[in-house]
Amino acid sequence: MKRFFKALQKYFADFGTAVSKGDIWVKLSLIIMGMGYIGRGQVIKGLIVTALEAGFVLFTKNISWPYISKLNTLGTVQREEVFDPLTMTKTVNDYDNSLLILLMGVLGICVIVAFIFLYIANIKATYRVMLRKKEGKHVNNFREDLRELINDKFHITLLSLPAIGVLFMCVLPIIFMVCIAFTNYDAAHQPPSALFTWVGWKNFLTLIQNKQGSTFGYAFGKILIWTLIWAALATVTTYIGGILLAMLINHQDTKLKKMWRTLFVITIAIPQFVTLLLISKMFGNYGIVNGILQQLHITDFMQEMGWISTSYVPFMTSSGLTHVMIILINIWVGVPYQMLIATGILMNIPSDQLESARIDGANKFQIFWKITMPYMLFITGPSLVTGFIGNINNFNVIYLLTGDYVTTDASLAAANAKDVDLLITWLFKITSESTLKQYYMASVIGIVVFIICATLTLVTYSRMIKGDSEEVFQ
Amino acid sequence: MKAKRVVGSFFRHLLLAILAFIWLIPIVWLFVTSFSTDPGIRTTHFFPEHWTFLNYQKLLFQPDTVANFPAWFKNSMIIGIFTCIISSAFVLMVSYAFSCMRFPARKKLMSFSIILGMFPGVLSMIAIYFVLKMFNLTDSLAGLIVVYSAGSGLGFLICKGFFDTIPASLRESAKIEGASELVVFTRIVIPLSRPMIVYTVINAFLAPWMDFVMAKLMIRSKDPADWTVAIGLYNILQKTLIGQYFSIFCAGGVIVAIPISILFIIMQKFYVEGITGGAVKG
């Protein structure tokens, strides 16, 4: 933290020096950004920078400012249509679109922030050019500048496009999502016909409180607990299963290792939306598993014993049993994948360690628990956490398997949730399958999941960086 | 001692065979059902009673108002190819910058990207939907291509791990001879990392084929010709349609699965190498 403030201080101090000690050209570029270059003969660079500045001013003044200025209210003029019976035409007033105001406002602010950074960097750069000139060093002409972009500054060429992509598809959406959580955007406040506005922390309170008429608090508690249980069980079962399977296949006595591996890999090669939908139908109330159980009179037996009250086994339609089935099916989905990862790592276990352990008289279990597992945990520890996060967000398995599930819990149903939903599928259903379309609640849920994932990520990541145990196994 | 080993080996293979059998049941069922004359779900027999190619013929040559497989396949293919080109280029570019170049803030940028990359995109999916809506890109293939490829630069870790293993002396000697970084990148590093490129390319191509949620969110069109394979196949399993289309769904599943499985099995080898290469390097 201290280092961060020091760096910040230095950042502005450098800017101050450049402004105060710079000559007339540096000072001129405070207003017209290209002047600092033009004055030293770098005309084309100067013109490009000036054009950028002009573009920024035009964009902000004409396009984004009208939106930014309305950000505090998100618009006040409701859309109204006036039908003129004389000309038989409809006229629409100059209405505000809250969504567009929010989107363009945020984008506009991002552009302004980016421009400020560019502006400060520009002044510093012109100051550096001035110093070079003073010391009698060579100042690049435009062609040399371009050549630098494929040489010493090649990383700028390489990184700029991917960075723009990441900004638009990762960073910007995250900022939006956070903003929407503080509004009342839903089907009743849907632009362009209606406006939505800021409501403060109200939505967050809705999620944790159990108020009259709202079951979000109840649903949130239930779903959060199931999400965490699911993520823990799904990660641990597939992880251990994958290691055991990999050891079984890679055992020195096993013949046809490649064939076995390929047999299991085929199951992950088929897209999940095919296999998961298929399995959910196989275990459906009138699916083939129930059909065969009936033929074998197992269903009748279970009915007589009073285990089930229906004429079928409700694999995918009853609370409890469905939860178990989902975890079992996830083992089917996840173990081959983990097996592949574990195979790669097992092959790299230093064989001298195994050998020396054997010579010292360790038996198989001791070798497994004292050498293989610590080694695996060391290498795959971080991936265990990413696996946990991945399972918290495992949309496919839950959504595709539980399409036929109907909840009997009225409170959950009122909040558009099912017993088997994860936070992420709940979020999806709120936005695209409910008629209320409570985008603000979806955003709040998104932020909560985000915080859970971010905390886990940061904890592991700082361990990963700090970890001085890197050389232990080398 | 030897007898014990033979018995152990026998049980080991038996166990493997049983596991493989369990793992393959759904796959086999998918395959045999695609040849069934019965259009709905069979509930009594594992294997169909009568076999036919009709499902494939219907799927491929007789698109109707619900199932338009040729269009779905074409859409998914276009998305796959473009995503593949853009994502692979992004991943290679970012990996080279982080692995082979030294510039201020490199470490900070890398940490930032890794942390950002660990956040699943699914989480901010509604926001992504609004961003694309602003640019009028929802309900279009271009929009989906953007969704799949724009953030792909963050997935550089494995590829960077591979680039790290290319000896720096190779690059340096080329630079002494007067080669620019661009030349080093395209003429030396890329040709040397062929296995990594195969892995990256196949991975980037497969991602949109495997994805379901983003496509479902982005494409709201009611016209089947606008859908991708994932949405289309999901749709024909709805309660009202499943009775007539289940076998056709299976046929579609088989057609999609065959090319993907082949690519996947090719990639598997590189996958194992890539993962460990990246993991050990950290």
Structural overview:
The complex is a heterodimer of chains A (474) and B (282). Chain A has 2 domains: 2-200, no CATH class; 205-471, MetI-like (MetI-like fold, Orthogonal Bundle). Chain A has 20 helices and 2 strands. Chain A has helices at 2-21, 24-28, 35-38, 43-68, 98-134, 142-149, 154-180, 202-208, 216-250, 257-269, 272-282, 288-295, 298-304, 321-346, 351-359, 364-392, 395-401, 410-414, 423-432, 439-466, and strands spanning 81-84, 89-92. Chain A has a two-stranded antiparallel ribbon with strand order 1-2. In chain A, a hairpin with a 4-residue loop joins strand 1 and strand 2 (89-92). Chain A starts with a helix and ends in an 8-residue tail after the last helix. Chain B folds into 2 domains: 2-56, no CATH class; 65-281, MetI-like (MetI-like fold, Orthogonal Bundle). In chain B, helix 3 crosses helix 7, helix 7 (157-164) packs parallel to helix 13 (242-281) and helix 8 (168-176) runs antiparallel to helix 9 (181-192). Chain B is globular and about 70 Å long. Chain B starts with a helix and ends with a helix. At the A-B interface, helix 5, helix 7, helix 9, helix 10 and helix 11 of A face helix 1, helix 3, helix 4, helix 5 and helix 6 of B.
Overview in brief:
The complex is a heterodimer of chains A (474) and B (282). Chain A is mainly α. Helices cover 68% and strands 2% of the residues of chain A.
